[in-house]
Amino acid sequence: MKLSQARAQAAATLRAAGIDGAARDADRILAAVLGVEPARLRTADDRDLSPGEIVRLDQGIAARATRQPVAQIVGFRDFYAHRFRVTRDTLDPRPETETLVETALSLPWGNVLDMGTGTGAILISLLAARPGSRGTGTDISAPALEVARDNAHLIGVRADFLRADWYDGLGGRFDLIVSNPPYIALAEMPGLAPDVLQWEPHSALTDGGDGLAAYRAIAAGALAHLAPGGHVLVEIGPTQGAAVAAVFRQHGAETRLIPDLDGRDRVVLARFGA
């Protein structure tokens, strides 16, 4: 089978399965099989695929047709300036979260705590962009922490990774605390796309309640774990800005809402003390 035929057939299979962005996803899977960037497929020689390449492509397309996320199929997601390993034990890093990273890099800090680190994408991106800084990532999931450690090693960043439920057992103070916590309310879970609901870890998506429990925990412990004048940055759902800002103000913080590139509220910036 020629490369052009494989591209067309893969896209057609995903379209028939009802996958939005079928051609894009087919190209991402095929490119991963071939070890190239998706953009290269348009200019690559129209060569015959090997039997092994065809098998791997067919397996990947079949997995995507069941709504498994592309990042889990190919094993990685590009986020900010780096490529991160992704598994079923972690959330797939979203482009919207880059807003949090960019906001963090506009602030003064030398050490950072990332709670609910998952793949480590936020923490590792920050440390890589600010040489000489120090960071700690925590997560309640041991398998997620192993993914984060692998990503730090692959990207060449040194960080500490600890298993913890928010601040439990965590000492020291930090200039900056960041988190992309589980913020989807339990009642909203059935409305998620199958790609998310059936494949990503529910503990990283929802608190099993109103979607605000993590913010309450982060805000309540912030003063005890921040250096003087420190900041907290948390990602939020686009309708949660007022509620999350109110949670932090209840604990003495000044707050500001940061929009993403689509103009939706995406990050709450909370500043504690002088």
TrEMBL record:
EC number(s) stated in the UniProt entry for this protein: 2.1.1.297
UniProt binding sites for S-adenosyl-L-methionine: G116, T117, G118, T119, G120, D139, W166, N180
Biological process according to GO: methylation
InterPro entries reported for this sequence: DNA_methylase_N6_adenine_CS, HemK-like, N5-glutamine_MTase, PrmC_N, RF_methyltr_PrmC, Small_mtfrase_dom
Record-annotated Methyltransferase small domain positions: 97-188
Domain Release factor glutamine methyltransferase N-terminal: residue ranges: 5-75
GO molecular function: peptide chain release factor N(5)-glutamine methyltransferase activity
Record family assignment: Belongs to the protein N5-glutamine methyltransferase family. PrmC subfamily.
UniProt xrefs under PANTHER family: HEMK METHYLTRANSFERASE, MTRF1L RELEASE FACTOR GLUTAMINE METHYLTRANSFERASE
NCBIfam families, alphabetized: hemK_fam, RF_mod_PrmC
Protein name, per record: Release factor glutamine methyltransferase
Organism, scientific name: Paracoccus marinaquae
